[in-house]
Amino acid sequence: MLKVLKFILFILTLGGLVFLLRKITIGESWKYHPLSALYKVHNGIPPSNFSASLPTFHPKATFCPHLGQPPTLEEELEERDLLESIAWPQPPSGSASPDLAQTSDPAHSLFTIGTSQNNRSWHVGEQLEVRVQLRDFKGRPKRYGGDLLLARLHSPKYGAGVAGQVLDHNNGLYSARFPLLWEGPAQVDVTLVHSSEAVAVLHRLRENRPDRVFFSSIFRRGGHSEKMVCNMFLPQDQGPLCNYTDPRTGEPWYCYKPKSLGCDTRYNHAMGGYTKDIVTKKEALLFQSGKNVKVPIHASTMVNISVLPSRKEATSQQSDPVTLATSGYYYQDSWRPLGDISMRHFDKSDAITRCLTNKLVYMYGDSTMRQWFEYLLSMLPDLKKVNLENPKKSGPFLAVDSTHNILLQYHFHGTPIRIEPVMISELRYVANELDGLTGGPNTVVTIGIWAHFGTYPMEVYINRLRHIRKAVVRLLDRAPGTVVVVRTANPQSLERDISLYNSDWLTLQQDVVLRAMFKGLNIILVDAWQMCLASHEAHNLHPPRAIVKTMVDMMLSYVCRDNTRNQGKL
Questions:
Q1: 47: which residues sit within 8 A by CB, 6+ positions away?
Q2: 521: how many CB neighbours lie within 10 A of its CB?
Q3: 504-518 vs 73-85: helix crossing angle, rounded to 10
Q4: What angle do CA 58, 63, 69 make, to 5 degrees?
Q5: Which end of the chain has fewer CB atoms at under 10 Å, N or C?
Q6: Largest Cα span, the chain
Q7: How far is CA 263 from CA 45, 231, 338, in A?
Q8: Burial classification of residue 471, based on how many CB atoms lie within 10 Å of its CB (0-12 exposed, 13-18 middle, 19 or more buried)
């Protein structure tokens, strides 16, 4: 009898494994009603190795709830609150597809340092408010909001600058507010990044076209190989799917199954390309560099003010939420944070070495985090890069200073990542990597993850950050002394077509979500957004070295904060 029971148990177990393997191979049943659209491959991939076409997604399929692990009720409520926090005004229904002439034109728009303020004086500790009136290409005032504006107050004379806070009044009028943080001359810059009509297009693309960046993998066995399209979202009606969903985090990833190879023969991961022709000719006019994308708005009168010393009497404005929303500012080309961290400027290699002696530094994220690794490597002559024979841009990278017991490691985040071909063994999710760390007071973790998620519905980014946040909490619970630093997103240059895949509007929304999700944890946010916006340097996906130095200095000031009280430049 016992032998019979064992045999039955064996059969049931075997059947369960077969069922599980079948699910992994073909994926779940996807209920899409796709529209016709062709992928155009522009990176030399032989068309015969790809699925010839990939459909767009059903307009209502903004997210695939069957992917990954089901959220808890608390997570569902958090997601709802986060999505509400980034809700953006939409143009009136009658202007869903307007002529260019009806859209926001920076050349006709103006900003004013309010008339009631022209005869008044400004003092350190107060605020400056600027009013912006947007007009269309015929010079008519806009009557609704939803445009994306960026604002900066700066002083070339003093190497000073601070980001402004923009308020949308939903009627074509906007306010830009600046905390006054230094004495002397200051001037205002206001930039139209996107018209409200362009933002509406970006919003639609984000929700309905997660396929506008696609990926590929080579499947190989012996001398035979096939290259297949991969992504987080793939309609199953184009063929059977290989399911590479991460078993620990539930992060989804799929590839189309090769015709003559199994799913277990997947060899690498690479950037596939960009889907073209995703907007109409009419919509394309909304994304013209130098005309209506990231173009300065001129002042109606003056752009310069003179800031006087602070008033002797206390003012309630010094605790205004606008000031509190400012993380820092530049003065004499040096970043001055307004938080609790005493900023230290690590200009010499020995200062960085002293800070990182006996430290294990783990860096996870995209190429903007790789910049930190490259910067430290260039600054520390005793830090020797270990030759792992990995791709130059993707890594992973390892550097060691055996004299001072410093280890520095960089690893890119898992899919989706637009990258040169890498082995699938290197596709590791940040949350899983954090769970593998021992942690402790000599462990430093830096995270920067944002640039590769702009083409997906915001729920995807929220889901990824949630997994990372949970892993950070677990790490801090088991090793409370661990130092965790999170880098925020940053604005970038928006040449032709870039806006459709990596717009500042998409980035800004990610930035708001990231700050909210890590709020309250014992970590530090390095505010790359405000550091770049307040700087005189041109915006770039990969900020220039001077700004990278500022970010790393901020990180090091936090790492060595117990030894940096009241210390200045080294």
A1: 41
A2: 14
A3: 140
A4: 140
A5: N
A6: 100
A7: 20, 15, 52
A8: buried
AA letter at 284: A
Six-digit token pair at 550?
């500022």
Q: What is the pLDDT of residues 73-113, one digit of tens each?
A: 999 999 999 999 999 999 987 556 779 999 999 999 999 99
Q: State the angle between helix axes of 458-478 and 73-85 in degrees (0 to 180), rounded to the nearest 10.
A: 120
Report the DSSP pairing between strands 304-308 and 184-194.
antiparallel
Cα–Cα distance for residue pair 405/486, rounded to 1 Å: 24
List the beta bridge partners of residue 484: 445
For residue 305, the SS3 value is: strand
Report, as an integer, the average pLDDT of 439-454.
96
The two tokens of residue 295 are 């173009």
Pairing mode, if any, of strands 122-123 and 304-308?
Answer: parallel
H helices of 63-118, where? Answer: 73-85
Find the helix or strand (DSSP H, E) in which 218 lies. strand 213-221
Query: Which three-class secondary structure state does DSSP give residue 71?
Result: coil
CA atoms within 13 A on the CB side of 80: 7
Report helix, strand and coil shares of the chain as percent, to nearest 5: 30, 25, 45
Tokens of 523: 């970590």
479 alpha carbon, distance to own chain's centre: 27
- β-pairing, 397-401 vs 224-231, is unpaired
**Computed from CA positions of residues 534, 540, 544, 547, in that sequence, does the dihedral angle turn out positive or negative?**
positive
pLDDT, tens only, 113-137: 965 445 578 999 999 999 999 999 9
> Residue 562: pLDDT band by 50, 70, 90 thresholds?
confident
Q: Virtual CA dihedral for 27, 29, 32, 35, nearest 10 degrees?
A: 50
Count the Cβ atoms, other than its own, within 10 Å of residue 9: 10
| Backbone dihedral angles phi then psi of residue 23, each to the nearest 5 degrees | -65, -40
Q: Are strands 524-526 and 483-487 parallel, antiparallel or unpaired?
A: parallel
pLDDT above 90 for 359:
yes
* Domains of the chain by start residue, with CATH: 21-81+209-269 (no CATH), 103-195+292-321 (2.60.40.10), 344-563 (3.40.50.1110)
User: In this predicted model, what pLDDT tens digit does every residue of 163-193 receive, in sequence order?
Assistant: 999 999 999 999 999 999 999 999 999 999 9
The neighbour count for residue 461, using CB atoms within 10 Å, is 22
* Beta strand ranges found along 235-286 (DSSP E): 241-243, 254-256, 268-274
- The answer to whether 408 and 361 are in contact (CB under 8 A) is yes
Strands 443-448 and 122-123 turn out to be unpaired
**Tokens read off for 455:** 């083409």
CB atoms within 10 A of CB 320: 16
β-bridge mates for residue 143, sequence order: none
Nearest one of 348, 356, 343 to 383, comparing CA atoms: 356
Task: Identify residue 523 by its one-letter amino acid code.
Answer: I
